[in-house]
Write a structure and sequence with these properties.
The protein has 431 residues and is of the alpha/beta class. Helix content is 41%, strand content 15%. The chain folds into 2 domains: 205 residues, P-loop containing nucleotide triphosphate hydrolases (Rossmann fold, 3-Layer(aba) Sandwich); 169 residues, P-loop containing nucleotide triphosphate hydrolases (Rossmann fold).
Length: 431
């Protein structure tokens, strides 16, 4: 099938032709006709399969065919879990709707809401938002959902992972009952299905690939390595000429910062991106990476799903995720737009069980790469050796005792009694 077979309107066909897009991806081919029929839909597809165009193109067409009163009130609401993804969808809408004159705005936290307020008051057709900031604006009376005709919940599974499900429900109950609801997710869960059933009477399910399977065009490789050797191994891989641009995944913000500093100290321009970074810092880091100024982007999972950048040659799992599904999402950052990609994973002994879960999910063993820092101990780890060490319970520092530093409970109780007695005596003298 070609885009011309879907009978998209001329302003959209003009954009697609300009960009050289001729054939829709499987999720686009199946979703666009259904959405144009104004059906509610849930689309299950891996990241990097063109889900954004699958809902933006038909929504733009439905809005264009119905009403030309541009920017008077919001008619489409798109909810996303991260600021980066919201910004990217905004860029896509700007691009796809460049010949339609529709106005849009992107709303998220971490920045001043003044410009967001101004955009809403001035008038927009499409709002792309993260749940938290949208609820803030709603509580201030700056946004209402009465005119919404199309609602999109993007990355629904990620919304659950990040704890936004209750915020999503609060928003959805305020939407008009006569609306089109579209849900897109990389995986399906009972919670997501229950959500779609609650807010849609007759929903069409589209699934273009089996859940949580790896992209065929990614060449995967595995390094068994001791924890203390990971930095040197990472540097030796990244400095090679065939690594053009690489995303390195870590489990913690602190580790992301440390790796970025380590690589920069070694002469490899690197930037870190995670939840503790301000929005301006995150935007600047992404811009440096997209422009090629930085060769490596060190990221945590929380923002990884919002990164949609073509021409990423490699993905490296410096630390394996504790959830196997996250592995699929991580490596899906490469091999986008029909290209091939490479993913490498480092596995120390304490991550061995994580690797077993990943290989069970993807139904194949990741090929082992021999190297000079290979660890047989990591490769063969079982039992307690194959599990991460238990975190020590956090113990708050003892505050200075009110009645002395004695560890003797009897002494403390005696001191309490003396204080009470002294208090009563003072009251008598005052009288």
């Amino acid at each position: 099938m070609k885009f011309t077979d879907i009978k998209l309107i001329e302003p959209i066909q003009k954009v697609l032709s300009k960009k050289g897009y001729q054939k829709p991806t499987p999720i686009q081919e199946k979703s666009i006709p259904k959405i144009l029929e104004k059906k509610d839909l849930i689309g299950i597809a891996q990241t990097g399969t063109g889900k954004t165009a699958a809902f933006t193109l038909p929504i733009l067409q439905l809005m264009y065919n119905k009403d030309k009163n541009y920017g008077k009130f919001p008619r489409t609401l798109i909810l996303t879990p991260t600021r980066e993804l919201a910004s990217q969808i905004g860029e896509n809408i700007q691009e796809y709707g460049s010949f339609t004159n529709f106005k849009h705005t992107v709303i998220f936290g971490g920045v001043s809401q003044i410009n967001q307020e101004k955009a809403l008051k001035k008038g927009v057709d499409i709002v792309i938002a993260t749940p938290g900031r949208l609820l803030d604006l709603m509580s201030q009376g700056l946004f209402n959902f009465n005119t919404i005709e199309h609602f999109v919940l993007d990355e629904a599974d990620r919304m659950l992972d990040m704890g936004f499900i209750n915020d999503v429900k609060k928003i959805m109950v305020t939407l008009p009952k006569t609306r089109q609801s579209l849900f897109f997710s990389a995986t399906m869960s009972k919670t997501i299905m229950d959500l779609t059933k609650r807010f849609s009477n007759n929903i069409t399910k589209i699934e273009v690939t089996p859940e949580a399977t790896t992209v065929d065009k990614i060449d995967q490789g595995l390094y068994f390595v001791n924890k203390e050797d990971k930095d040197d191994l990472l540097y030796n891989i990244i400095k090679t000429p065939d690594v053009d641009s690489v995303i390195v995944f870590t489990k913690t913000k602190h580790k992301a910062n440390k790796i970025a500093k380590f690589l920069c100290d070694k002469g490899i321009d690197s930037v870190a991106i995670h939840g503790n970074k301000s929005q301006n810092a995150r935007t600047e880091a992404l811009d440096r990476f997209k422009s090629g100024k930085s060769k490596a982007l060190i990221a945590t999972d929380i923002v990884a799903r919002g990164i949609d950048i073509n021409d990423i040659s490699h993905v490296i799992n410096y630390e394996l995720p504790n959830e196997a599904e996250s592995y699929v999402h991580r490596i899906g950052r490469t091999a986008r737009a029909g290209q091939r990609g490479v993913s490498y994973s480092f596995c120390s002994a304490e991550e061995r069980d994580y690797l077993r879960d990943i290989e069970k999910l993807i139904r194949k063993e990741v090929p082992i790469i021999n190297h000079d820092k290979h660890s047989e101990f990591a490769k063969n780890a079982t039992g307690i050796d194959a599990k991460p060490p238990k975190k020590k319970p956090f113990v708050k520092a003892n505050k200075k005792k009110k009645f002395g530093d004695s560890n003797n409970k009897k002494t403390d109780n005696k001191n309490k009694s003396n204080k009470k007695f002294e208090g009563k005596t003072k009251k008598k003298f005052k009288k």
